[in-house]
Amino acid sequence: MSPGGSKARQRAETRRTLISISRDLFAERGYHAVGLAEIATTACLTKGALYHHFGSKTGLFHAVVDDVAHEVSAEVAAAADAADTPWEQLLAGCQAFLTAGAAPARGRILLVDGPAVLGWHDWRALDEAASGAHLAEALTGLVEQGVIEAQPVEPLTRLLSGAMNEAALWLARSDDPERDLVAVGRSLDRLLSALRVGG
After folding, report:
1. Which ranges in the chain belong to alpha helices (H)?
2. Does residue 1 have a pLDDT over 60?
3. Helix axis angle, 86-101 relative to 133-144, nearest 10°?
4. How confident is the model at residue 123 (pLDDT cuts 50, 70, 90)?
5. 70 with 56: CB under 8 angstroms?
6. By CB distance 3.0 to 4.6 Å, which of 71, 85, 93, 130 could disulfide with 80?
C-alpha cells in the first residue's frame, strides 16, 4: 500500500475512533455534559486531532448523529426488505424504526440532543437523508400501486415521520419500553390501516 493510502486509512480509523468514543459518552451523559478534553483523553489523542477531523465539538456531534441515523436507517431497510409485500414492508419498516429509535442511548442522541444542538433544519436534513428517504420511497410506491389513495406524498411522509419520531422519543423515556412499544405498534398499525384503500 502506498504511503498516501496508509495515511488515509489511519485518518479514517482515527475519525471512526473519535465518533465511537464520543457516541458512547454523549449517549451516557448527554452532549452538554461531555467535554472535548474528556473525549480526546479517552481516545488517547490530543484535542488538536479532534479539531483537525471535526473542527469543533458540534462538528463531532454532527458526525455522531449522522452515524446513529444511518445505523437506524440500515435496520429499517433490512426489516422492510425481509417482508413480502410493499404494504408489509411499510409496516415492518415503521416498526423497526420505533424499535431502533426507542433505545434510550439512540433516543438521547438522535431525538433529544440532535435537534437542540444541531438546530432543527440541520437535524431534519440528516433525518430525511436516512430513515425519511425510506419512508418517502415506500409511500410513493404504495400510492403508485393504488394501495394508498392517490395524494401528495411529501406531506404524508412528514406527518408520519413526525408521529414516529415523537413516539420513539416517548419510548426512549418510558419506564417500561417493551410494554409501551407493543402499544405504540398497535396504534401505528391502526393509523396506517386508515390510509389503505379499502382499509
Report:
1. 3-29, 36-42, 47-54, 57-81, 86-101, 104-107, 114-118, 120-127, 133-144, 153-172, 177-193
2. no
3. 160
4. very high
5. no
6. 93
Give how far Cα 23 sits from Cα of 66, 96, 135, 136, Å. 11, 21, 26, 28
Residues 26-40 pLDDT 10s: 999 999 999 999 999
Query: Coil, helix or strand for 102?
Result: coil
Q: What whole-number distance in Å separates Cα of residue 183 and Cα of residue 72?
A: 21
Is the pLDDT score of 128 beyond 70?
A: yes
Tell me the pLDDT tens digit for each residue of 77-97: 999 999 999 999 999 999 999
Residue with cell 432543527: 120
From CA 93, how far away is CA 76, in angstroms rounded?
5
Question: What is the average per-residue pLDDT within 171-176?
Answer: 88
Rounded-to-10 torsion of CA 18, 19, 22, 24: -120
Q: Which amino acid is at 130?
A: A
Averaged pLDDT score across all residues of the chain: 92
- CA 188 – CA 109 distance, rounded (Å): 23
Residue (of 99, 101, 117, 125) closest to 60 by Cα position = 117
Sorted by sequence, the CB contacts under 8 Å of residue 71 that are 6+ apart come out as: 100, 106
Q: Closest Cα to residue 98, out of 155, 31, 174, 41?
A: 174
User: Which residue from 80, 101, 103, 78 is spatially nearest to 91, judged by alpha carbons?
Assistant: 80
